[in-house]
């Protein structure tokens, strides 16, 4: 008994010595004791409390590179970061440069400034960026937290080859860990476990967690919905402009000339490129022979010795890899090997209520800055062939929306609320951005977060369209938060918006546009969209094959169908 009291006293004494008492903190600060250590929050101008750069796992560097995230070690020093932590390592805009660093597994918490005894819904944001770029720090959750009285968490996760590398050398399951190359997905699960253990200290409810993300972030939301190992870590999910861009393991691993073929950025192709870059091989054929002679242990040990810049170099040499970059993979470990449609049909997934949707002109985000489509001269722009521009966007965007929204909504059994984002009130002078950009990929994100001071799309938001977009943003934040509270966006948190009906009840989706909040019938079926692409003779065969290639590449290339419609020469 004496020993028990002594240990209790020692623990209290240690905490008192390490952590400052409340009355030593400056006005506006608030501290929370977490498994990471003491974190000190700052009050922001709009009243939100923010805690930045909280580590949720050990730095995945050295021998922890290509390992599952290791639980964070409690720090003896308080965290009082005034801005989000570093982004995870990713290629810079210039050859040989990188952004961020590998030591990046941190998260940020935004909470309303006013606290109450009631625990608040938690919304965990998973950023986009193709799973090879982006950072949690780009997203300010303060407005959403304050306006809708929720706790917002934004997380970093490993990117590119550090987060997703499916070579057998990295899939050995060191230390009894999952034998998978999906380290980023394991990062997200670790972050959600951190939320479960700590969010109550921020007045968040660990039993009411909504995951939400956009683009690759939404792809990851879908992956977490499908992953058995994420069961119980969240109760609702929102996928914005995501997709099931989930490759088969062979596609993410194999050389391009193997059967089944891998992609240009498959693990084995990258290892061969690294051998050439390092001077260990003279060309790709020589590199392949050397790589095949190395054991998994030798490959892993060698690649752990490479610098961050060296590992990212092959990706900078091929900046247009796009859809060919492996990330979420049907590897039989984190996710079953069958197509997601089969998995959902079998009921083997985390069956939670979902909001799923896309933007009317997803593809214009890329076409707008592709010199094959648009010629820019300063602020002026000329669309080279408006009919082709419109047709290519329509086919890509219809496929995107049908595959990840309509087709999925028909298969899910939990309540599903579908939407389409149509806002295109951008300026028409000096360039017609309303047409060139339209309701492009990613454009809904500022509306969801209630902040329009964003990089990339800032020129679209003007004084002339301010009132309409702010009204639309308020509605979207209200719906998103109402869903986080109850699993049903209904009429929003103020119960004054048009009712958003489930897909199961209406087979309709909510249309978000300035002055327009209304339910609208869904799109065509997946097969109808593919047939429409194939039959559009206004486009060249090369254009049609390009769209079809990306529409038919997951979870493995449908080579037979592509060849049957004359696309054999357009597969690369």
Explain what you see.
The protein is 34% helix and 16% strand. The protein is an alpha/beta fold and 572 residues long. It folds into 2 domains: 234 residues, Alpha/Beta hydrolase fold, catalytic domain (Rossmann fold), CATH 3.40.50; 171 residues, no CATH class. The longest helix has 24 residues. The radius of gyration is 24 Å and the shape is globular.
| Rg calculated over all Cα atoms | 24 Å
Number of structural units classed as domains: 2
Which class do the helix and strand fractions yield?
alpha/beta
Shape, per Cα inertia axes: globular
Strand order, biggest sheet? 1-2-3-6-8-7-9-10-13-16-17-18
Strand content: 15-25%
| CATH topology tier name of the largest domain | Rossmann fold
Low-confidence runs (pLDDT<50, min 5 residues)? Answer: 1-27
The fourth-level CATH homologous superfamily of the largest domain is Alpha/Beta hydrolase fold, catalytic domain
The biggest beta sheet reads:
12 strands, mixed
Determine the N-to-C terminus distance.
Answer: 73 Å
Briefly, what CATH class of the largest domain? Alpha Beta
Number of strands: 18
Architecture (CATH level 2) name of the largest domain = 3-Layer(aba) Sandwich
What share of residues is helical?
A: 25-40%
Could you tell me the mean pLDDT? 91
> DSSP helix count?
20
């Amino acid at each position: 008994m004496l020993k028990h009291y002594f240990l209790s006293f020692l623990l209290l004494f240690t905490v008192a010595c390490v952590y400052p008492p409340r009355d030593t903190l400056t006005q506006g600060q608030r501290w929370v004791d977490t498994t990471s250590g003491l974190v000190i929050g700052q009050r922001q101008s709009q009243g939100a409390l923010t805690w930045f750069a909280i580590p949720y796992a050990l730095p995945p560097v050295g021998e922890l590179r290509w390992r599952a995230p290791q639980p964070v070690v409690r720090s003896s020093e308080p965290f009082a970061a005034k801005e989000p932590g570093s982004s995870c390592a990713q290629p810079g805009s210039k050859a040989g440069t990188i952004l961020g660093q590998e030591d990046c597994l941190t998260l940020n918490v935004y909470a309303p400034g006013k606290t109450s005894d009631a625990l608040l819904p938690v919304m965990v944001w998973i950023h986009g960026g193709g799973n090879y770029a982006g950072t949690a720090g780009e997203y300010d959750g303060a407005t959403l937290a304050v306006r809708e009285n929720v706790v917002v968490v934004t997380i970093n996760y490993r990117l590119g080859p550090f987060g997703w590398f499916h070579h057998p050398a990295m899939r050995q399951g060191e230390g009894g860990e999952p034998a998978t190359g999906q380290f980023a997905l394991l990062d997200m699960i670790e972050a959600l476990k951190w939320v479960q253990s700590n969010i109550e200290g921020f007045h968040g409810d660990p039993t009411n967690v909504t995951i939400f993300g956009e683009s690759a972030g939404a792809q990851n939301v879908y992956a977490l919905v499908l992953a058995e190992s994420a069961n119980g870590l969240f109760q609702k999910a929102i996928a914005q402009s995501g997709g099931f861009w989930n490759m088969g393991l062979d596609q993410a691993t194999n050389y391009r000339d193997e059967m089944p073929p891998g992609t240009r950025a498959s693990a084995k192709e990258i290892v061969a490129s690294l051998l050439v870059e390092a001077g260990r091989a003279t060309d790709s054929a020589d590199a392949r022979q050397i790589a095949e002679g190395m054991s998994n242990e030798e490959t892993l040990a060698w690649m752990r010795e490479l610098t961050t810049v060296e590992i990212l170099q092959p990706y900078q040499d091929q900046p247009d890899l796009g859809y060919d970059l492996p990330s979420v993979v049907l590897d039989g470990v984190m996710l079953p090997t069958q197509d997601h449609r089969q998995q959902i049909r079998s009921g083997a997934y985390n069956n939670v209520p979902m909001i799923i949707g896309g933007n009317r002109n997803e593809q214009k985000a890329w076409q707008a800055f592709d010199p094959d489509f648009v010629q820019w001269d300063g602020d002026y722009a000329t669309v080279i062939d408006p009919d082709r521009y419109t047709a290519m966007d329509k086919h890509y965007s219809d496929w995107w929306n049908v595959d990840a929204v309509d087709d999925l909504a028909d298969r899910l059994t939990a309540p599903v609320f579908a939407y389409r984002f149509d806002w295109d009130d951008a300026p028409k002078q000096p360039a017609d951005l309303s047409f060139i950009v339209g309701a492009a990929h990613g454009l809904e994100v500022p509306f969801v977060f209630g902040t329009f001071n964003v990089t990339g799309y800032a020129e679209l938001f003007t004084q002339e369209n301010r009132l309409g977009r702010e009204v639309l943003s308020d509605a979207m934040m209200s719906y998103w938060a109402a869903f986080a509270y109850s699993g049903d966006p209904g009429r929003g948190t103020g119960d004054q918006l048009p009712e958003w009906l489930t897909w199961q009840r209406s087979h309709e989706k909510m249309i978000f546009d300035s002055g327009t909040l209304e339910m609208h019938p869904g799109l065509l079926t997946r097969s109808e969209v593919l047939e429409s692409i194939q039959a559009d003779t206004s486009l060249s065969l090369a254009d049609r094959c390009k769209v079809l290639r990306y529409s038919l590449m997951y979870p493995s290339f449908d080579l037979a169908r592509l060849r049957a419609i004359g696309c054999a020469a357009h597969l690369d």
